[in-house]
Amino acid sequence: MPDMKTKTSNPFLEEPNDIHCIEGEDAILTCKLKPDTPPVKWLKNCRELTQNEKYIISMEDTQHKLTIKNTTESDSGDYYVKFGFFSKKIQLNITDPFLEEPNDIHCIEGEDAILTCKLRPDIPPVKWLKNGRELTQNEKYIISKEDTQHKFTIKNTTESDSGDYSVQVGKFSKKIQLNITVRADEVFYNFDIICPKRRTTHCKNIIEKAQILFLKNPMIFSA
Hints:
It is a single chain. The protein is built from no helices and 20 strands. The protein is an all-beta fold and 223 residues long. It has 2 domains: 12-95, Immunoglobulin-like (Sandwich); 98-181, Immunoglobulin-like, CATH 2.60.40. It has a 5-stranded mixed sheet with strand order 2-9-8-4-5, with no helix packed on it. Strands 11-18-17-13-14 form a 5-stranded mixed sheet, with no helix packed on it. The chain is rod-shaped and about 110 Å long.
């Protein structure tokens, strides 16, 4: 729908701007009109929008608003504010905030685990969570940002640090699973074996994936 005008003066006190919105956030389209303006209509791709749970149409003094709740990619498109013979186009772009999504992390107990992702510059504040609970910076957790890269560092990890983490941007979030591998302690057992000559002695390894070394006074003679 092209912009239309009559010879009357411009009714806009403040014209609408194109909008960029993060998926999951509410998009608010606004303009300011002179008080004596005819009733306003909001349209998307030439189809008039009516108020419902998705679209909230409001006016306060000279400011007119169309609020699109909980946006999805399908909400992208050309919108129009129309009144009488006038109309103005507003382009709405819904974007995924992630330039590079986070990956699951595997870490050895005692090492630092670093969770990373890359996000667009114009985003709402970022939150880091574990099992749905927000984490804040302290001696254990270091939150940092450099350009578009966001980092969450967990210092000196223990087995209890394993779990489901998430990075949240507005209402948009991505899950990261952190797995901590526990270091196995070295265990020594002393035992005597008495067996006839030319016999093979068997020892069962009951520790999964552990390496067993046989020593004698105290040299390794079999592994």
